[in-house]
Structures are given as structure tokens and as C-alpha cells.
Amino acid sequence: MYWAIGMRVEQMAEAAQLGAYIEFTYFSVGKPEATVTMEDYANAIKVIGPKHCILSSCSGQGWMPIHTFAWQELFRGLQKNGLTNQELDLMAKTNPACLLGFK
Questions:
Q1: What tens digit of pLDDT does each residue of 14-50 get?
Q2: Which residues pair with 25 in a beta bridge?
Q3: Residue 66 located in a structural domain
Q4: Sign of the C-alpha dihedral, residues 86, 17, 7, 63?
Q5: Which range of residues forms the domain containing residue 41?
Q6: How confident is the model at residue 68 (pLDDT cuts 50, 70, 90)?
Q7: Does the residue 1 lie in any domain?
């Protein structure tokens, strides 16, 4: 959903079906001029399926909040829009571990 990539949800779902992981970062919803909402993220994740998604804070820039705040806001926003703790755990822990070969 980041403007530089510009994939539609249907394209993300197709990429996921082909084996890709789709990353959702706090940066895209947390920056001051964000045009993407937590609801947009949650709806996309529901279409794609959490087993094909990864969450990240992407808060390394000096003007972004610290990582812990970004994670907290991202998790709360996604929970508020219908995602479960189990799905968040899958996307924030299990999927990245699998991708890196740790599981």
C-alpha cells in the first residue's frame, strides 16, 4: 500500500498465493501525511490472509516514534479493526522467523 510500490490488494493476494510475504509497516499508517489507514491494513490482511503477512515498525527515522510505540500503535490499530492476538503473533513473530529460517 506504500505509494512507491502501489500494489492493489488483489495483486498482493496473488503474490501471496505465489509464495510471497506482504509486509505492513507502521510507517505507512503512522507518518504525519499518511493516506493509508489501520482499517485499510486490516481489510487487506483479511483478504491476503495473515499467514502470508509480516508486520514491522519501520521506525528507524529520527522523526518517527520509537519502535515500541510504533509496535503498540500498529497492534492496537489492527486489533481495533478485527485482527486477533493470534493473528498478530503470527505476523510479527512466526512468519518472520520462518522467512529467516529460524523455524
A1: 999 999 999 999 888 887 788 899 999 999 999 999 9
A2: 56
A3: yes
A4: positive
A5: 9-99
A6: confident
A7: no
70 grid coordinates:
510504533
Per-residue exposure over 27-45, b if at least 16 CB sit within 10 Å of its own CB, e if not: bbbbeeeeebebebbbebb
What's the structural domain count of the chain? Answer: 1
For the question of whether the overall pTM of this predicted structure is more than 0.70, the answer is yes
Q: Residues in the chain, how many?
A: 103
Residue 91 Cα distances to 4, 32, 33, 47, 63, angstroms: 22, 25, 25, 14, 25
Is residue 27 in a domain?
A: yes
Q: What's the pLDDT band for 63 if we cut at 50, 70, 90?
A: low
User: What confidence score (pLDDT) does residue 92 get?
Assistant: 96
Q: Are 97 and 60 in contact (CB under 8 A)?
A: no
Residue 94 forms part of a structural domain: yes
For the record, the C-alpha cell of 25 comes out as: 509497516
C-alpha cell at 73: 500503535
Contact between 39 and 69 (Cβ < 8 Å): no
